[in-house]
Design a protein that fits this description.
The complex is a heterotrimer of chains A (about 350), B (about 180) and C (about 100).
Chain A: H1 3-39, H2 55-65, H3 76-92, E1 103-105, E2 108-110, H4 121-131, H5 133-142, H6 146-177, H7 182-187, E3 192-193, E4 197-198, H8 207-220, H9 232-235, H10 245-269, H11 282-310, H12 316-343
Antiparallel strand pairs in A: 1-2, 3-4
Chain B: H1 4-25, H2 29-49, H3 53-77, H4 87-113, E1 119-120, H5 129-138, H6 141-162
Helix pairs in contact in B: 1-2, 2-3
Chain C: E1 2-3, H1 4-24, H2 28-53, H3 57-87
Helix pairs in contact in C: 1-2, 2-3
Classes of the chains: A mainly alpha (about 350), B mainly alpha (about 180), C mainly alpha (about 100).
Chain lengths: ~350, ~180, ~100
Amino acid sequence: MPIGLYILASVIKSAIVLFVLLTSVAYTVWLERKVVGHMQNRWGPTRVGPFGLLQPAADGLKFLFKEDLTPPHVYKPLFLAAPLIAVVFALTSISVIPFGNDVVIGGYVIPLQITTDVNTGLLLILGVTSIGVYGVALAGWSSNNKYSLLGGLRASAQMVSYEISLGLSLVGVLIMAGSFSLRDIVHAQQGHFWGFIPNWNIFHGQIIGFFCYLMAAYAETNRIPFDLPEAETELVAGYHTEYSAMKFAMFFMAEYANMITVGCLATLMFLGGWNGPLFGPPVLQAILPVFWFVAKVFCFLFLYIWVRGTLPRFRYDQLMAFGWKFLLPVALANLIATAIAVAW
Amino acid sequence: MVSIHLILFLAFGAVAAAGAINLLVQRHPINAALSLIAVMAALAGEYMLLGAEFVAAVQVIVYAGAIMVLFVFVIMLLNAGVEEQTKGSRVAILFGIPGMLLGSLLIAWVVLKHSGTGDVAVGALPGAPNVIGQLLFHEFLLPFEVTSILILIAIMGAVVLASKPPVPGGAPAKKVQD
Amino acid sequence: MVPISYYLVLSGLLFACGVCGFLIKRNIITIFMSIELMLNGVNLSFVAFAAHWHQLAGQVFVFFVMVVAAAEAAVGLAIIIAVYRTRETLNVDQVNLLKL
C-alpha cells in the first residue's frame, strides 16, 4: 500500500476511534448515573433530553463555562501539565487495540487498528498504563495541599502495586496464546470446545486469571471498591481537590477512558475479542465482529458500574494488603498452573 | 544520505541529549526527575529503531514507569526544594563542566574518526520476546536466578532501612483493628 | 542507515552528562538520578553493539542492568530517607561528618 494512502487511512481511523472513544466516555458517565440511580431506587438523570440522554452534553457545556481557579502557591508548570499527562496517556493506549478482522476496501487490506499489528502490543499498553501514574502523582504534589498530596501518593502507590498483579494475570493468557500480539491472542480464541462452549479464555481455563485481572483493573482505574484516594468522605476528593472546570473534566475523562481501555483489553484477552456468530451478507460480516467487540466491552463496563453501586470501599491498609498478600500470590499460582497445564 | 532512519535517530537523540543537559541545569529535583523520564522515553524510541522491541517496552514499564515513580515519590515525601550553591559546588562547576566537555569531545572525535565500523540498519536485530526468553532461560539462567535473589535482598534492605526506628523502652505499637 | 559511531557518541554524551551531574550537584537525589543517567547511556551502548554484531546477548544484558538499577534505586532511596530522618537535610555538603 503506498505511503500516502497508508497515512490517510491511519488519520481516518484515528479520527473515528477518537470520536467514538470520547463519545463513549461521555455516555459511560450517563450509563453510570442511570444504573447506580436505579440500583438506589431513584431515576438518575431524566430531565435533560429523553431519558437524560443529553446530560453529558449539558455537563460538557458546564465544564467549559466554569471558572478555572488556580490556587496560589501551586507549582504552576506541573499543575497545568498533570491533567494533560493523565488524559493523553489514557487516550493513547487505544491505538494498539484491534477492533475486528481486517477489512478489504477497494483492493487494499486495512486492519481495524490504528497502528499495524505490533509484535509487543500488550507490553505497550502496560507501558502506557505505567506512565499514567505520573498524572496522578504530580497532580497531588503540585496542588500545595496536604489532602491532595496524601491522596496523590496513595493513589500512585495503589496503581503501582496493582500493576504487577495486572501484568501477571495476563501472563496466563500469553502462555496459552504464545504471542504478545493482540491479534494472535484473539485468533487463539476462535472455535468451540465441547461442541458449544466458545473457546474464550475465560471458559477455557483462565477464570482465575480473569478474576485477578478484574480486581487489579478496579484498583488500577481507582474505582470502587478501591477508590479511597479520591473518596469524598475521606480525603476531600484526593488528588483532584484543587482542580476545577476543564482540568477536572480532563481527569474525569482520563478515568473513564482508562476504564474503557481496560475493558477493551479484558475483551481481547479473556472474552474472545471479536469472535462471535457471523451471518449474513459480506458487508454485515465485516461489521459484526466490531459489534460483538463493542457488546462485550459494554458488558464489562456494566459489571464495573454494578460493582460500584454495590460494594463498600476498602480502607487503605486493607487495600494494599489485599494487593500484595492475596492478589499477587493468586496471580502467580495461576501462572504456574497454566504453565504446567500447557507444558503437558 | 538522509534517510528516515537518520531523521528519527536525530530526533530521539536530540530529546535524550536535551533531557540530559536539562538534568544538569535544573535546580529543583522534580524538574530533573521529569527530564530524566524524557531521556528514558527517548531512549526507548532509540531501542525500537535498533529492533529491540522487548527491551524498549521493558524500559518504559520498568525504568520510566516504576523506578522513576519511586524517585518522584521520595522527592515528594521529603519535600525536596531548590538546591543551594555551596563553595564546593561552585568549584566543581568551574572545573568540572569544561573538563567533562573536553573529555567527551575528545572521545567523540576519536570514535567518529575511526567510524569505519559500519552502519546499523533499522531494526537490525529484532529482539522478539520469545527469542529473548529462550536466551534468558538457557544461556543466562544462572544470572537470571541470581538477580531474583538480588531483588529479594533489595526488598528486605529497603523495608528495613526505611522503616521507623523502634520506640525505645519497648512500648508496644498500636495495632489497627481489622 | 546510521553509523554505529553515532549511537556511541550519543551514549557517551549521556554518560558524560551523568558524570557531570554526579560531580556538580549537591542534592543527593539529583546525584542518584545522574547515576541512573549513566546507566541509561551504557544501556544504549549495549543495544547498539548488539545490533551491530548481531548478538542478542547485548539485549539480554540490558535486562540485567535494569534489574540491578531497580534494586540499587530501591535500597539507595531507602538510605536517603534514613539519612534525611537523622540529618534533616538533603545537601551532601552538610552530611560530611560521621557524628552530628
